Amino acid sequence: MYTTPAGGVAGVSGGRLSEVGGGRGRLLDRIVEMLDGAGSVVITTHANADGDGAGSAAALAAFLRARGTEAWIVNPTPFPEPFAFLLPDPRWAVPAASEEAARRCREADLAVVVDTAELPRIGRVKSLIRDLPKVVIDHHPEGKRPIGGVVLRDLEACAAGALVFELIDRAGGPWSPDIARALYIAVLTDTGGFRFTNTNPECLRVAARLVELGAVPEELYRAAYGRFQPHRFELLRESLATLTVHESGRIAWITVPKEAYDRLGATVDDLEGFVDVPRSVAGVEVAILFRTTSDGRIKVSLRSLPPVDVHVIAVELGGGGHMRAAAAVVKGPLEAAVQRVVGRVGEELR
Fold this sequence. Notes:
CATH superfamily of the largest domain: inorganic pyrophosphatase (n-terminal core)
Mean pLDDT: 93
Number of strands: 11
Strand order of the largest sheet: 6-7-8-9-11-10
CATH architecture of the largest domain: Alpha-Beta Complex
Radius of gyration: 20 Å
CATH class of the largest domain: Alpha Beta
Distance between the termini: 33 Å
Largest sheet: 6 strands, mixed
Number of domains: 2
Low-confidence stretches: 1-21
CATH topology of the largest domain: inorganic pyrophosphatase (n-terminal core)
Structural class: alpha/beta
């Protein structure tokens, strides 16, 4: 769906936009015109950006700068260190709390939000870009507090990076190895290394094209999945001791011990792949990762096999995501949160 800056619905929703005449092409052309008409663009994504958010933002910034447009990345949380190599110049990413970020946003003509369309997910950035025209590029279902503007949403896209690829391709480039690498990381990580159910034919076509444009699969796989420090495995070892399989055999979960997380100086980046442990147990249809945050709330990450829709559960808990991968933050204490979430998942499986 795309929405006019004034808030009126002016497009289509549900499925792929290309199914409705030339609506998708017209929407892409409109976004290209908005980008070309801007002298300075601010790009942002959701807090604690993953490979898709970081890669999409880095690729879009590189594309805009290659076309002569000033582009800055202002995220609600710092640009993730594991993906900092995607930035040709680290100065492109400006801390949201800085005076420079406020200045860049004041001077910008347009804001582009990638990999989310929800106001709460962009944190302090929402006030910085409140008065700017906006483009939103996302592949998640629409939530309760959407970001207004011109919205390119495709629920079948494997990653926001695939939509950014389509936009750059529609614009005729220019392409560069930097752009190809960033978008490959976006697609690679959001499909779990091309393992998840969102690895569709279009996803693989995009990946193949990015390789032709300069992405090196082995190099980027190691950059995404071969970068962990020893303390991450110590945290995983202690977390494995909490692995629990529900009596039904259909639900399994793992808890990250807060004491170990703090003692080891871990970050959210160290938790990459933890939820895959319970998901890999034979017979399990829904896997859950529980983590206590610094403010005492519980971060819940859910993964499922078809046909279970964990997005529905996450929305009920105040979060969101995809049908097979979603998350929410709920009130503690941990034991009560585990009981509540596992119970709700059990209801969904009945």
